[in-house]
Amino acid sequence: MKYAALLFILCSFVCIKQLHSQNIVIAVKGNITLQNSQPVKKGDNIKNNAVLLFRPDGMVSPEVKLLSPKGVCVIRYRDYEQRPKSELLQLVAATIHKNSVATLGTREYSTDPGPQQQVQLVDSLCRLLGANAGNISGLVFTYINPYCVATFTSPYWTEIGDMLQAKYGYQVNTSTGNTLTAAAFDAIPKMAQVKTREYLPNAASLKKYCPIPGDQGHFGTCTGWSAAYGTRTISWAIRNNLTATSDITNQAFSPTFVYEQIKDNDDVNCSRGSSITRAVQLMKTSGVPFLSDLSFSCNADLQPYRSAALNYTIKDFQALNERYGIAATDEEFQKTLTNIKTAISQKKPILAAIDCYGTFKGKVWNGVADKNMGGHAICIIGYDDSFSNGEGAVEILNSWSPFWGNGGFIHVKYADLRRILRGAISVYDDVKPQPLIPADIKKDTIPVIVTDTLKRLTGSFSLVLANGNHMKAIRNESGVRGLRLTNIDEMTYNIAEAYPSNTNFRLQFTSAQPAYVYLLGTDSKRSPVVQLFPDESRNISALLDFTSEVKVSIPDESQYIQMDETPGEDYLCVIYSKEPLDMARIKNSVQGSGKSFVKAVKEALAGRIVNEEEVAFDKNKISFSAASAKRTAVPVFIGFKHQ
Fold this sequence. Notes:
Layout: H1 2-11, E1 23-29, E2 31-34, E3 45-46, E4 52-55, E5 63-68, E6 71-76, H2 77-82, H3 88-95, H4 101-104, H5 115-128, H6 136-151, H7 157-168, H8 182-186, E7 195-196, E8 203-205, H9 222-240, H10 245-250, H11 255-262, H12 276-285, H13 306-309, E9 316-319, H14 330-345, E10 350-357, E11 372-384, H15 387-390, E12 393-397, E13 409-413, H16 414-420, E14 421-428, E15 455-465, E16 473-475, H17 477-481, E17 493-495, E18 504-511, E19 515-523, E20 530-533, E21 543-544, E22 550-554, E23 561-562, E24 568-577, H18 583-592, H19 597-604, E25 615-617, E26 622-628, E27 633-642
Helix pairs in contact: 1-5, 5-6, 5-7, 9-11, 9-12, 11-12, 18-19
């Protein structure tokens, strides 16, 4: 059997007393040798500073698949050609993000070995690596877990974990470390209550975008692991369409970079924990580098990685809880749960803070709140309304290794989630990879998304009467043609009819592209400019991060605005923007300019408004579609009269 052959190869290297490096050859194709002409073969352990020689032979292009300190890596001949005299670890670093382990290296087995065979193979690898009680934790995360994922379609984590514990003293650590407070969480803008056109599915999962579950060990660094290694990595995998676990893990982000900057200054042992709100703020402003560049350690020097980290910032984030903590009412929790489902169904991973108990283990948490282990940070990566005969559950990615729970994951029923959820945050990732030039696009490279360089915005607006009818709008050609011109004082649309005082109506707007949306209102009597959306009193986020059309109603789906007794003209402006706007500055500028509402708003948005040829407005309804290479905002002005 194939597994027996590999077992023999691995066992033959157990006699090595001191290993200067740990680069285990998993597979070789073609002719590859060391500098002394010794052939490189499966099972070899090669030093970091070794120089490999790739020797093409006819139609065979050499390649080698390695289990390296940076992950499972495939090095091809063309990679070698670019760095022909590089040391092995330099080649690994240059290719770890480039080549797909899934497509370049086929698995050793057509069918998985059974649990006993997998245990034997992992045991042989442990002996080859010189495993003992003192180093087993590091070896498990760096070598053994990646090896299992790359070699077995379905690793038997429980059986492998039992062997590691019995023979090498490996222990699953269940450290916590989230310190989220109500004040910190309430300061985060909340996700707006929206109505989606698409049906919210009964179940959705981001599990295929997850890396191998991480292992925070005995440190209180769960916030760094869940934020960077979990949430940020999943978001990156979604953006880049990575679904092979080995490839995703090779491009996982560094928990050290995040935790070192959000921990307390006197937390020298990385044991006190930190808050998920600090983590998302840091990832937005400073970004985060790859774990393969900055491996996990406590009190690391971050300076060499700060510049690269800025390439991987998140765009923004939103709080999903209707109310912080476990004191939410049934109605509030249901809104929170709907927000969680909406985020997951829109492919947004969720960073969350929970209360953690000693019973938090198994495939499904039993919901027993025994010994409180403190606050813990986790990732919510899926939900299923049908779980456990309709009780419903979310699925969680933890940072306690694949040997905990169900391969590193656990289900928590909705009713139990309500009793432990402190806060949940979704992230908005606008970072996209650079497009590959045609010569580099090959079937054996990691799949990428070619960047769409245009900033796209799509939206609509309507005024809905209490009887359900929409006020008819007519496009104003002068306003459309002069959208960017500050000397053009014209509405984009005018409502065709005048309506009597005391008419009840509701404002509705939609967005079909991720955008920041703002709604301002005033009247011809120069009343103060009012921000109708987002609601500042409730700290609602202006970000509508949805790939399908969503609708926002003001005041809401059950209430209306009533026209006052004073006849006149009312003005509205809905602003769609790809970037967040300083609305306090804009409102102050509009209010104090002494100019008309239209002119003042245009001046406040100077340089941001798209060109006339970059936007198309519908003729008979308030609707537009825009795409611009440089400009980021579309203001839509609506005028209506009441008598």
